[in-house]
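Give me the fold.
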Amino acid sequence: MRSPKTLLFLACSAAWLAVGAAPRPVAGQAAPPRRIVIAAGVLLDGKGHVLRNTRIVVEGARIVAIDPKAGPVDYDLRGLTVLPGWIDAHAHVTWSFGADGKNAGADRTTQEAAYASAANAWATLQAGFTTIQSLGSPADIPQRDAIARGALPGPRILTAVEPLQGRGLQTGTPDELRAFIRKQKQAGADVIKIFASQSIRQGGGMTLSQAQLDAACDEARKQGLRAVVHAYKEAVRVATLAGCTQIEHGTMATDDDLKLMAEKATYLDPQAGLVIENYLLHKDRYLGTTGYTEEGFAAMQKVLALNHDLVQRASRIRGLKVVFGTDAVAGAHGRNAEEFIDRVRDAGVDPMTAMVSANSLAAEAMGLADQIGSIAPGLQADIIALTGDPLKDITAVRHVAFVMKAGTVYKAPAASH
């Protein structure tokens, strides 16, 4: 069997045919950074502010100025809404359907899986997501690195590599969990993913104790990594008390749990709808595969309203930092922005708050606020534009007309330049 790196290389080569590789400078010569000027009639800066009738100056991979007098204009995006590239704090980019059309999970290393993963990355980038946190799979590593080298078009990827799976309150000593965390660091993890609860399809019960979570999140800190924890019900409080960085999902957390999270500056990454809606939409492709039963689907149908309730309650907790994550799995890649609609339409989140949750706040949660998440001089030139105004009609997020990541344009309206 070919290695994951070899398979991904094959996928990379094919994917690049869609966009064309940039010309290389002559050997021995350093190519000057290309200067690009973007005209914006309406600009959301990623931090909750709206700028009008200005221009963004990009040199190489970075924004160097916001100057309404800059010129000449290379991309005229007046008439669109310009904003920073979105950040999805919880995705599974290697998760795809197999040749039989059924759920095949995230960890396959076949040639077919490599092509599917590359296609997922391209669809996600085209949908306006320039950074994702993939939580996680060893197959993320070669894809993350290929995108970082410019060999494959896709969003910037941060990966957890292999998640820590809690299998019972008595399984795994604190020392064993610490060793697992160190193993992920050595494997190249950007973040640690910990399962402290069962899947909601199995009821969401706790699978790690306070002592186990204390050890795991402490070791992550010692390794210089963040720890994000899949947690429902009482596991939300336990993970917060353990000093973990971020809670994923959080369904059935109480208001007191949410207030504790705000007090401890723990980030919350709930899902208002997309992940369950995707499962229900593709029920025939998931049902009968590992972990997906009729009982599980019945549980998910009930949980949808609970997720709406959680996001509503979380948005009212003063000081609670709620970031944007979709838990995008097979069938959801490229549709990540539907989660914005769920949050605004079904959970009553303010549209600007929803935008910021996927921009500066998500960047802050990832420790990348000095790199991405805002349109400001010195930051990466991750810039998208929408046909329509999401502050007036949140469904505008479905209509991404322009995508730039790190100064490279991957999508542009024909009349813009």
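The longest helix spans residues 294-315.
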